[in-house]
Design brief:
heterodimer, A: MetI-like fold, four-stranded antiparallel beta sheet, 8 strands, about 5% strand, globular, B: about 375 residues, mainly alpha, MetI-like fold, amino-acid transport (chain B), transmembrane transporter activity (chain B), Amino acid ABC transporter permease (chain B)
Chain lengths: ~400, ~375
C-alpha cells in the first residue's frame, strides 16, 4: 500500500497535521484516490485488451445458442438452448450437490462427533481414526480418488453389478427404480399434510397440558403412529396408486429408472466424508464445552440420561456448534466447485469452464460466477445468524 | 477393653480391575455397547486384514516396469519408479541438489526456533521470512551465480506444493496484518474497504480465484506484459489467503485486553508505535496456532493449481497414472500422495495443538 508510506513520511509541521481527525480525512482521501486510479488503470487496460482481441463486452452472449451438451440437467436443456440457460443448469447442479452434501455431511458429522466421545473405546477409536485421516487429506485428492480409482474402473453396463434386477451399478452410474405416481396418489399427499398438521397441533397441546398439569403424554409414539398410519391408510384406500419404473439394459446402456451419475456420486462422497470430519470436530467441541456440572445437576434433578441429553446438553452445545457448522456449510458449498476436476457439470465447470472458453467473455462470466457464490455465502450466513440469535434468545 | 482392629481392605473384585475390568467398562458396559463393540470388531475384521494383505504382504516393492508386479497386491514399483517426479516434478535430475540444498537450509534455519533456550528467535524468524526466500528463489530459478536457469514450467511435484504454500503464507501475512488493522480502524472508508476486500475473497471459492487470475489478469494488465502461469497462481493464492490471514490476525487483535491499547496511548505512543511495539507482538504470538491452521488449509488447497495446469504433487500423480505404460495403478498413486499430504497436515496440526496448550497458560483471562 503505497499511500500508507506517503502518510507516514508526511512531515508533522503544522499543528493541523497533528490532529487525528485531519489525518484521518487526508489518509482516507488518499486511499480513495489510489483505489480509483488503480481501478481506472485496470478498466482502461481491460477495455483496450478486449478491443484488441475483438471481444465485445456486455451480456449479449447470454442469449446466443450454446451448442454443447451437458451431462446432467435438472431443467430441460439441449444443445439448442442459450448460454444463459447453461448458467441456470450449472447453478441448479451446484445447489443439488451442495444440498445433498450438507445433509449427508451433517449426518456423518453428528454420528462421528458423538462416537468420538463414546465411552466405548473401540467406537471412539474408529471415529478418531476417521476424523484424523480424512481431515488431513486434500479434498481434491479425495474427489479424484473416488472418481478415477473407485468409480471409473467399475464394470461396463453389460456386466453391471446388480441387486435383485432393480439396482444396477456400473461405470455409467448407479441405476435405481424411480417411483411413478398414479392417479389417486393425491390423497396420500393430502394425508401426509394432514398428519403433519395434526402432529404439530398435538405436540403443542401436549406441551401446554404438561405445563399446566404436569401430566405427560406419549407424544413421540402417538405422532409416529399418525405420521405413518394416516398416509398408509390413504394409500391402501386408493388401491396402492404407485408403481416403479425399473431400469433395464437397452443396447449399450440402461433406460428407465433414476440414475446417479458417477461424477455426482464421487463428488458427493468426497464432500460429505471430508466435511463430515470437520463437522464431527465441531460437534465434539460443542459437547465438551458444556460443563460436566450441567449433566450432574440434571441427574440430581432426577432427569434420565436421554432427557438430559435432549433438554440440557444439546441446547447448550448447539450454541457452540452452530457457528462452526455455518462455516462448514459455506466451505462445502464453495468446495463443490472442485467438480470441475472430474467433469461434474456444476456452475464452475459448465459456465466458467465451457461457456467461458466458447465465448471468451471472461470478465462477465467470472463476475457472474463469483456473484453467485458471494450471494450463496451471504444468504447462508444471514440465515445462520438469524437462527443463532433466535436460539440464544430462547436460552436466556 | 480390647482395641478395635479393622479387617484389612478386601481387594477390588476381579471384574473391576485389570484386563477384565477394562473390557467391562470400555467395551461391554451395557448390552447396547457390547453390540456396538462386536459390530465394530466385525467391520475391522472385514476391512483391515485384506488391506494389510494388499498393501504389504502381497505387494511388490522393487523393479523398473509393470512386469515386476506379479503378486496381485499393491504395485509400489509404480511409486518407486516415479518417486523423483513426484518430489521434484520435471526439474532436471542433475540439478536436484539445488532443491535439496534449499529445503535443507530451511530445516537448519528452522530448528533453533523449536529450542526453548534459544533467545534470538525474532531475528532468526526475520531471516527466514525475508532473506531466505530470496536465496531460495535464486537456487530454484537459477540464471545467475553460474546456475543454469530453469523455467518455472519444469517446477513440480512436492517441491511446487511447498513453494506455493510457503509463498502463500509468507506473502499473505503482512497483507493480512494490514487488512486486519484496517478492519479494526475507526476510519469509515478504510474500514469498509478492508471489510469488502476480506469478505469478497472469503466468499468465493479458490478455484474461481485461480480461473480469474489465469484468464483475467492478462486482460487487466497492459498489452505485452507477460506473466508466467506460476506467478499468476501465486498472485491468486496470496490474494485469497491474505483475507483468511486477516481474519486470523483480527482474532488475535481482539484478544488483547483494552488496557494494553490504553496503556500504550497513555505512554504517548502514536498509532504505529503502539501497534508495532505493544499490540502486534502480543497478538501475533497468540495467533501462531491459527496461522499454522490456515497454513494447513492452504497446503491442502494448493492441489487446486492442477486445474489451471500446474503440476504439484497431485498433478504429477495424476499425469503418472494416465501414462499408458502404467495404467491401472491409480489407487497406489493416490494413496502415496494422500500419505505425503497426511504426514504434513497431521504433523502440523499436532504441532499447532501443542502450541495452543503451551500458549494458553500465559493468557488465561
Amino acid at each position: 500500500m503505497a499511500d500508507e508510506q506517503q502518510q507516514e513520511s508526511t512531515p508533522a509541521q503544522a499543528a493541523l497535521w497533528r490532529r487525528p481527525a485531519f489525518r484521518a480525512v487526508v489518509f482516507q482521501a488518499l486511499l480513495v484516490l489510489a483505489l480509483c486510479m488503480v481501478g481506472y488503470y485496470l478498466f482502461t487496460n481491460t477495455l483496450h485488451n478486449l478491443e484488441e482481441r475483438g471481444i465485445s463486452t456486455g451480456f449479449g452472449f447470454l442469449s446466443l445458442e450454446a451448442g454443447f451438451g451437458i451431462l446432467q440437467s435438472l431443467i430441460e436443456y439441449s444443445e439448442t438452448h442459450t448460454y444463459g440457460r447453461t448458467f441456470f443448469v450449472g447453478l441448479l447442479n451446484t445447489i443439488l450437490v451442495s444440498g445433498l452434501g450438507i445433509i449427508l455431511a451433517t449426518l456423518i458429522g453428528f454420528v462421528m462427533g458423538v462416537a468420538r466421545l463414546s465411552r466405548n473405546w473401540l467406537i471412539a477409536r474408529i471415529a478418531t481414526v476417521y476424523i484424523e485421516t480424512f481431515r488431513n487429506i486434500p479434498l481434491l485428492l479425495q474427489i479424484m480418488f473416488w472418481y478415477f480409482a473407485v468409480l471409473q474402473p467399475l464394470p461396463r453396463p453389460k456386466q453391471s453389478l446388480s441387486v435383485g434386477e432393480s439396482f444396477f451399478l456400473n461405470n455409467r452410474g448407479f441405476y435405481l427404480p424411480s417411483p411413478v405416481l398414479e392417479e389417486g396418489f393425491w390423497l396420500v399427499m393430502v394425508a401426509i399434510a394432514v398428519a403433519i398438521v395434526t402432529v404439530v397441533v398435538l405436540a403443542r397441546w401436549a406441551h401446554r397440558r404438561q405445563e399446566a398439569t404436569g401430566q405427560q403424554f406419549h407424544t413421540v409414539y402417538v405422532s409416529l403412529g399418525i405420521l405413518i398410519g394416516l398416509p398408509l391408510l390413504a394409500f391402501l384406500a386408493m388401491g396402492m396408486p404407485l408403481s416403479w419404473d425399473y431400469p433395464a439394459l437397452k443396447g449399450f446402456n440402461f433406460k428407465g429408472g433414476m440414475v446417479i451419475i458417477p461424477e455426482l456420486a464421487a463428488l458427493l462422497m468426497a464432500l460429505s466424508i471430508y466435511t463430515g470430519a470437520f463437522i464431527a470436530e465441531a460437534v465434539r467441541s460443542g459437547i465438551l464445552a458444556v460443563s460436566h456440572g450441567q449433566t450432574e445437576a440434571a441427574y440430581s434433578l432426577g432427569l434420565r440420561p436421554g432427557v438430559t441429553l435432549r433438554l440440557v446438553i444439546i441446547p447448550q452445545a448447539l450454541r457452540v456448534i452452530i457457528p462452526q457448522l455455518t462455516s462448514q456449510y459455506l466451505n462445502l458449498t464453495k468446495n463443490s466447485s472442485l467438480a470441475t476436476a472430474i467433469g461434474y457439470p456444476d456452475l464452475v465447470a459448465v459456465f466458467a469452464g465451457t461457456t467461458l472458453n466458447q465465448t471468451g467473455q471472461a470478465v462477465e462470466v467470472i463476475a457472474m460466477t463469483m456473484a453467485v457464490y458471494l450471494t450463496i455465502s451471504l444468504a447462508i450466513s444471514l440465515f445462520m445468524n438469524w437462527y443463532n440469535k433466535r436460539k440464544q434468545l430462547v436460552e436466556r | 477393653m480390647k482395641e478395635h482392629v479393622p479387617h484389612p481392605d478386601l481387594p477390588p473384585p476381579i471384574t473391576n480391575v485389570g484386563v477384565i475390568g477394562w473390557l467391562r467398562t470400555k467395551l461391554f458396559s451395557t448390552w447396547l455397547n457390547a453390540g456396538f463393540t462386536l459390530l465394530a470388531a466385525y467391520l475391522i475384521y472385514l476391512t483391515i486384514p485384506p488391506l494389510i494383505d494388499w498393501a504389504f504382504i502381497k505387494a511388490d516393492w522393487f523393479g523398473d516396469s509393470r512386469e515386476a508386479c506379479t503378486s496381485g497386491g499393491a504395485c509400489w514399483v509404480f511409486v518407486n519408479v516415479r518417486f523423483d517426479q513426484f518430489m521434484y516434478g520435471l526439474y532436471p535430475a542433475e540439478e536436484y541438489w539445488r532443491i535439496n540444498l534449499a529445503f535443507g537450509l530451511l530445516v537448519l534455519l528452522a530448528i533453533p526456533l523449536f529450542i526453548e533456550r534459544f533467545h534470538h528467535k525474532g531475528i532468526l524468524a526475520a531471516v527466514i521470512l525475508f532473506i531466505y526466500p530470496i536465496v531460495a528463489y535464486y537456487l530454484f530459478a537459477g540464471g545467475s551465480f553460474g546456475l543454469e536457469a530453469i523455467d518455472t514450467s519444469r517446477w513440480g511435484g512436492l517441491t511446487l506444493t511447498l513453494v506455493l504454500s510457503g509463498v502463500g503464507i509468507v506473502a499473505s501475512l503482512p497483507i493480512g496484518i494490514v487488512l486486519a488493522l484496517g478492519r479494526r480502524s475507526k476510519m469509515p472508508i478504510v474500514k469498509s474497504v478492508c471489510v469488502v476486500f476480506i469478505e469478497f475473497w472469503r466468499g468465493v471459492p479458490l478455484i474461481t480465484v485461480l480461473f480469474m487470475v489465469s484468464v483475467m489478469l492478462p486482460l487487466f494488465l497492459p498489452e505485452g506484459s507477460h506473466f508466467d502461469k506460476l506467478l499468476r497462481a501465486m498472485i491468486g493464492i496470496v490474494l485469497f489467503q491474505s483475507a483468511y490471514m486477516a481474519e486470523v490476525v483480527r482474532g488475535g487483535l481482539a484478544a488483547i485486553p483494552k488496557g494494553q491499547y490504553e496503556a500504550a496511548e497513555a505512554l504517548g505512543l502514536n498509532y504505529w508505535k503502539s501497534i508495532g511495539l505493544i499490540i502486534l507482538p502480543q497478538a501475533l504470538k497468540l495467533v501462531i496456532p491459527g496461522i499454522v491452521n490456515t497454513f494447513i488449509a492452504l497446503f491442502k488447497d494448493t492441489t487446486l493449481v492442477l486445474i489451471i495446469g500446474l503440476f504439484d504433487l497431485l498433478g504429477m500423480v495424476q499425469t503418472a497414472i494416465t501414462d499408458s505404460n502404467w495404467l491401472g495403478f491409480s489407487i497406489e498413486g493416490y494413496i502415496f500422495a494422500a500419505l505425503i499430504f497426511w504426514i504434513f497436515c497431521f504433523g502440523m496440526s499436532r504441532y499447532s495443538q501443542s502450541l495452543e496448550r503451551k500458549l494458553h497458560t500465559g493468557h488465561a483471562r
